[in-house]
UniProtKB/TrEMBL annotation:
<keyword id="KW-0677">Repeat</keyword>
<keyword id="KW-0539">Nucleus</keyword>
<feature type="compositionally biased region" description="Polar residues">
    <location>
        <begin position="101"/>
        <end position="123"/>
    </location>
</feature>
<keyword id="KW-0804">Transcription</keyword>
<dbReference type="InterPro" id="IPR036427">
    <property type="entry name" value="Bromodomain-like_sf"/>
</dbReference>
<keyword id="KW-0156">Chromatin regulator</keyword>
<keyword id="KW-0805">Transcription regulation</keyword>
<protein>
    <recommendedName>
        <fullName>Bromo domain-containing protein</fullName>
    </recommendedName>
</protein>
<dbReference type="InterPro" id="IPR037382">
    <property type="entry name" value="Rsc/polybromo"/>
</dbReference>
<feature type="region of interest" description="Disordered">
    <location>
        <begin position="61"/>
        <end position="123"/>
    </location>
</feature>
<keyword id="KW-0103">Bromodomain</keyword>
<feature type="domain" description="Bromo">
    <location>
        <begin position="1"/>
        <end position="41"/>
    </location>
</feature>
<dbReference type="Pfam" id="PF00439">
    <property type="entry name" value="Bromodomain"/>
</dbReference>
<feature type="compositionally biased region" description="Basic and acidic residues">
    <location>
        <begin position="61"/>
        <end position="76"/>
    </location>
</feature>
<dbReference type="InterPro" id="IPR001487">
    <property type="entry name" value="Bromodomain"/>
</dbReference>
<feature type="compositionally biased region" description="Low complexity">
    <location>
        <begin position="79"/>
        <end position="96"/>
    </location>
</feature>
Length: 123
């Protein structure tokens, strides 16, 4: 879980599919190496179900993210474009950023591992 959090903080995920696969790997490993019915086994089911539900919700609310789901964007498409002369040009909207927010009944809201109140994209 810490490795996933580090990758999120360092913005190392190139697609939502990569994040999804890491979550699935985490949960599958947890179920493989813990007894059925154990707390860790059950937690893996909860984490995976929660992630899938939230991912689908975000994809439904933001259809433009679908192209990020399977990494279908070209490797350099989020970076600068070039003109016919090969001069790098900034993209008009910049790369799409994914903000992951977790809420817990035990404490304050967490945004990519940091305490957070409601924030706009400009904060």
């Amino acid at each position: 879980m810490n490795d996933i959090l580090k990758k999120i903080k360092k913005e190392e995920y190139k697609s939502l599919g990569d994040l999804r696969r890491d979550i699935e790997l985490l949960c599958n490993n947890c179920r493989t190496f813990n007894e059925d019915g154990s707390i860790l086994y059950s937690d893996a089911n909860v984490i995976e179900s929660f992630f899938r539900e939230k991912l689908q919700q975000e994809l439904n609310e933001h259809p433009e993210l679908a192209e990020w789901e399977e990494g279908s964007r070209k490797e350099n498409s989020a970076g600068p474009s070039t003109t016919g002369t090969g001069t790098p040009q900034p993209t008009s909207n910049g790369p799409t950023r994914i903000k992951l927010v977790s809420t817990s009944s035990n404490g304050p809201s967490q945004t990519n591992g940091e305490n957070s109140a409601a924030q706009s994209d400009d904060e």
